[in-house]
Amino acid sequence: MEPAEILSNPGGVIGVGWLMIALPLLGAAVLLLGGRRTNKFGHYFGVLMVLASFVVAVLAFVQILGFAPGERRRGVSLYEFIPGVADMGLLIDPLSISFALLITGVGALIHIYSIGYMSHDLDRRRFFGYLNLFVAAMLLLVLADNYVALFVGWEGVGLASYLLIGFWQFKPTAATAAKKAFVVNRVGDFGLLIAIFIIFTSFGSVAFGEVFAKAGGASEGTLTAIGLLLLLGACGKSAQLPLQSWLLDAMEGPTPVSALIHAATMVTAGVYLVVRSGAAFFPGDGTASLVVTIVGVATLLAGAIIGTAKDDIKKALAGSTMSQIGYMMLAAGLGPVGYAFAIAHLITHGFFKANLFLGAGSVMHGMNDQVDMRKYGGLRTFMPITFYTFVIGYLAIIGFPLLSGYFTKDGIIETAMEHNAILGWLAVVGAGITGFYMSRVVFMTFFGERRWDEGVKPHESPAVMTWPLILLAIGSAGLGAFLIMGNRFMIFLGPAVGRPDELPAFHAFAPVGLATLALVAVGAGYAWLKYGRQQVPVLAPRGSFLTTFARRDLYGDALNEALFMRPGQWLTRLAVWFDNRGVDGLVNGLAATIGGSSGRLRRIQTGYVRSYALSIFVGAAILAGAWFVVGTL
Amino acid sequence: MTTHYLVLSALLFAIGGIGVLTRRNAIVVFMCVELMLNACNLAFVTFARQHGNIEGQVIAFFVMIVAAAEVVVGLAIIVTIFRTRRSASVDDASLLKH
């Protein structure tokens, strides 16, 4: 089934859909421009704005459900943005509204949690201002009806992530990490920009509806080029290979930021871009789609391997994000069959990853901001709510039967298996590694004996932090079944991105699913042998070559350093040398030549009157002589 | 007849020129300049007599007037230099060099 046509503005809540973006933006403006006056109520105001945005999203969702499936794509034009190029407008369809619900819903929970988590921070108001800005930019990204407006949101997300990762800018590591995220994202943005340029020159428009309608007439080469460049952009934002290096360093930001970046915003933008452009540029066959699947599989394995070796609880979770986004990319590269699974996994991942990150934040909150899991241990009795919600998130992410991850990840693996057996089996292996590293996190944190630092008194977090955890845990548990059973989500999403005419049948325990479960069980069992039954050393053992390989992020940073940073430094040194010696040398040399020769020339001025007189005589004699030789003048 | 006057004029001019170029004492240099001017005057008057017109003699008067003015200014400078430096040598007054 092809995507439905984009119909006109139906009015109602959809007609004022811009409120979804405007409300958090207003929050950001008030909090950031209002100064200290807003310190008292700032955090409540920020939460209120996101909640209001969530309410608008829910109402718009209800309105969409009221239309017939073929009439659920609605364009809302707002104003002339760049004359002749792009108008500012919103595209409210099942895809964008799913994202809007995830961003505002999970975003609101993260906002509420932050009230408790940041309660001791002097800059809490600024923090909420940035969070609101982040949400507003992400909503603009997903709701825009053309590539240029999408790019505005895209850059807004980049800016907000920079501000939030470097929120504790007095820490040099945080400032560096923020800069790294910004610079790596620029590489991806470059790809997206070029893609938009090619789209505009090829189709004469950047509006989604017009571009997708005309894409069929373009040459294979153009479509592939646009697809690959869009993928480069997606890789930057979604931390896919080869632009993954910023994600692990981004853990320097406060934990709610990590949750927001990893669950509701930022890293999902790349998947959104691929799925949104999917009908035109990633149809499931062809070079661009193949590259998307390869990038996805490579990243899901790389992220999982990195996750196995990290002792920092947030970095272990960051590796897992990379890996899960890799699954989504893999699905997005499989064409219309995969789109729905990619987005479904994105939504359930949004819940269980926010759950896990906020749980990790809750643990850190009770452990004096300790992030080293080797100094945790035995925490389950001290923070029961955190423990139980974390375990639900954990079971969801490893794909425990009937929890969210089981449905969505299994769907991706089954689809990949039908498409290409190699990709499928690699995805199964990735699931097994997920089972290992997530079990390792749980065992090291909540089980075993206590390896705490002296003076640490773990305690459960306040209700303002535990309630978001409970709500997220409910989503982590049940959402997958709700979305996947009966292909509910695929049918809902069909009008927006297209879907196969024949809906895939869901087998509760298909052979592939059983194999996946078996590998996950093996991974979890091995983690129990290594970290549950045995004593965990407080100091990290040196480990084998493979451990070092994973600890160093698969030498990704070393590779970037050798390939880009060092040659870049050489280039700048060469440029500086050329400037000093070449350009400056020419100018300075000219000046020195003139200065030197004039210095020599002025020696003629001896100050002796008699020598001047002599030169006058000689001159007069020469003139007289010339007169005689030439004759009368 | 006029040739003798002209030869004398040339001799006086040459003596004056050599004096200007070789002598260090400012007063002597000054006198040599006067000598050269008067050699010119002699040549002017000689040519005026030879051609039987008055212009040469008129020019001679102009030269005398200029020479008188020049003496006033020149001597004033020389006296001032002598007062400050206790020297009338033209080689000593060489500050305006390089």
From TrEMBL, chain A:
| Stretches that traverse the bilayer | 12-33, 45-68, 88-115, 127-144, 150-170, 190-209, 257-275, 287-306, 327-344, 379-402, 422-443, 464-485, 505-529, 612-630
Membrane topology value: Multi-pass membrane protein
Q: Which GO terms describe its molecular function?
A: NADH dehydrogenase (ubiquinone) activity; NADH dehydrogenase activity
Q: What's the superkingdom here? A: Bacteria
Task: Identify the residues that the record assigns to the NADH-Ubiquinone oxidoreductase (complex I) chain 5 N-terminal domain, covering every copy.
Answer: 86-128
Report keywords, A-Z.
Membrane, Transmembrane, Transmembrane helix
Taken from the record, one Pfam family name reads Proton_antipo_M
What is the protein's major site of localization?
A: membrane
> Localized where?
Endomembrane system; Membrane
Domain NADH:quinone oxidoreductase/Mrp antiporter transmembrane, by residue range, is 144-434
Q: Which portions of this protein are annotated as coiled-coil regions?
A: none
Q: Name one GO cellular component term.
A: membrane
Q: Name one GO biological process term.
A: ATP synthesis coupled electron transport
Q: Which Gene3D superfamilies match?
A: 1.20.5.2700
Q: What name does the UniProt record give this protein?
A: NADH-quinone oxidoreductase subunit L
Gene for this protein? nuoL
UniProtKB/TrEMBL annotation, chain B:
* Keyword DNA-binding in record: no
Subcellular location, record wording? Cell membrane; Membrane
Q: Which reaction equation describes what this protein catalyses?
A: a quinone + NADH + 5 H(+)(in) = a quinol + NAD(+) + 4 H(+)(out)
Q: Name one GO cellular component term.
A: NADH dehydrogenase complex
Alphabetically, the GO molecular function entries are: NADH dehydrogenase (quinone) (non-electrogenic) activity; quinone binding
Membrane topology term: Multi-pass membrane protein
Keyword DNA repair in the entry? The reply is no
GO BP annotation list? ATP synthesis coupled electron transport
Membrane-spanning residues where?
Answer: 6-22, 27-47, 59-82
Which keywords does this chain's UniProt record carry? Cell membrane, Membrane, NAD, Quinone, Translocase, Transmembrane, Transmembrane helix, Transport
The Enzyme Commission number assigned here is 7.1.1.-
Q: Which PANTHER family match?
A: NADH DEHYDROGENASE SUBUNIT 4L-RELATED, NADH-UBIQUINONE OXIDOREDUCTASE SUBUNIT ND4L
What binding partners and quaternary form does the record give? NDH-1 is composed of 14 different subunits. Subunits NuoA, H, J, K, L, M, N constitute the membrane sector of the complex.
HAMAP family on file: NDH1_NuoK
Read off the NCBIfam families from this record.
Answer: PRK05715.1-2 (NF004320), PRK05715.1-3 (NF004321), PRK05715.1-5 (NF004323)
Free-text function comment from the UniProt entry: NDH-1 shuttles electrons from NADH, via FMN and iron-sulfur (Fe-S) centers, to quinones in the respiratory chain. The immediate electron acceptor for the enzyme in this species is believed to be a menaquinone. Couples the redox reaction to proton translocation (for every two electrons transferred, four hydrogen ions are translocated across the cytoplasmic membrane), and thus conserves the redox energy in a proton gradient.
Similarity field: Belongs to the complex I subunit 4L family.
User: What is the protein name for this chain?
Assistant: NADH-quinone oxidoreductase subunit K
The organism of origin for this protein: Acrocarpospora macrocephala
